[in-house]
Amino acid sequence: QVQLQESGPGLVKPSETLSLTCTVSGVSITAFYWTWFRQAAEKGPEWIGLIYSSGSTNYNPSLTSRVAMSLDTSKNQISLRLTSVTAADTAVYYCARKDGDYWGQGTLVTVSS
Amino acid sequence: EVVLTQSPDTLSLSPGERAILSCRASQSVSISHLAWHQQKPGQAPRLLIYGTSNRFTGIPDRFSGSGSGTDFTLTISRLEPEDFAVYFCHQYGNLPFTFGPGTKVDIK
User: Fold this and answer.
1) pLDDT tens string A13-59
2) CB atoms closer than 10 angstroms to residue A49
3) CB nearest to A45's CB, from B33, B43, B45
4) Which residues of A9-26 are buried (b: 16+ CB within 10 A; e: fewer)?
5) What is the overall mean pLDDT for chain B?
6) Does B87 touch chain A (CB under 8 A)?
7) What angle do CA B8, B9, B10 make, to 5 degrees?
8) CA dist., res. A40 & res. A25, Å (int)
9) Cα-atom radius of gyration of chain A, to the nearest Å?
10) Strand order in the sheet with B4-7
């Protein structure tokens, strides 16, 4: 079955870059598009953006100047980079297939010095 | 951006009762692009309904969705103990895709 697992540092300093990886098993990442979401405490999820198997992307306008997504087909992984982070970027980050039919378990990223 | 508003904020019900959750959009959403997700504490959201009324794989038939335009509804016909959770509506037809703030269904 489809499984997704996020990984990366749980603590990032303000102004630095957040980098996360989503490892997918059970399906090739070239067969679908993939989405990153995040969820701050006690809030609804926020759509960060998506990446197609071609590598083309759509990002949330509120984040587009700071975000980048990429694929590593050899490792079946999707990556997320978010630059110049602030405390407002503290959240649980999730990767998901398509528009959210399968989600990873999420990883908490805290932005703090 | 399409803003989704959910009501009520909290629904206090007993097992066996019917739950009706509402999601209202600030502009029309295609019925093909409205979903409902369930989230329990410490867990990722789980897709229940996509395309307004289609149950995802493995979702029991006590969950049903309906609506069109700007008004959508999730109905849980008879609450089971495992259904007490937070429910989010989600539109994925207009960029940027957005979620509602959630309705918490808790035990009365």
Assistant:
1) 999 999 999 999 999 999 999 999 999 999 999 999 999 999 999 99
2) 22
3) B45
4) eeebeeeeebbbbbbbee
5) 97
6) no
7) 90
8) 26
9) 13
10) B4-7, B19-25, B71-76, B63-68
Contacts of A103 in chain B (CB under 8 A): 44-47
Cα A54 to chain centroid distance, Å, stands at: 17
**Which residues are registered as beta bridge partners of A5?**
A23
What residue type is assigned to position B52 of the chain?
Answer: T
Q: What are the chain B neighbours of A104 within 8 Å (beta carbons)? A: 44
Looking at the complex, does the CB of residue B63 fall below 8 Å from at least one CB of chain A? no
Judging contacts by C-beta atoms under 8 Å, the chain A residues touching residue B37 are: 45, 100
Flag whether residue B95 sits within 8 Å of chain A, measured between CB atoms.
Answer: yes
Residue from the list B44, B47, B88 with its beta carbon closest to the beta carbon of A94: B44
CA dist., res. A20 & res. A49, Å (int): 14
Please report where in the chains the tokens 């867990």 appear, as a residue. Answer: B43
